[in-house]
Amino acid sequence: MISRIIALVLIVLLSPLFITISLLIFIFDGSPIIYIQKNYGLNNKIFNLYKFRTMKHNTPELPTEEFSNASSYISKLGKILRKFSFDELPQFFNILKGDMHFIGPRPCMVKNEEVVKEMRELKGIHTIKPGITGLAQVNGRDSNSYDRKVELDYEYMKNANFIMDMKIVLKTFVVILFPRNIKH
Question: What are the counts of helices (DSSP H) followed by strands (DSSP E) for the chain?
Answer without folding.
Answer: 8, 4
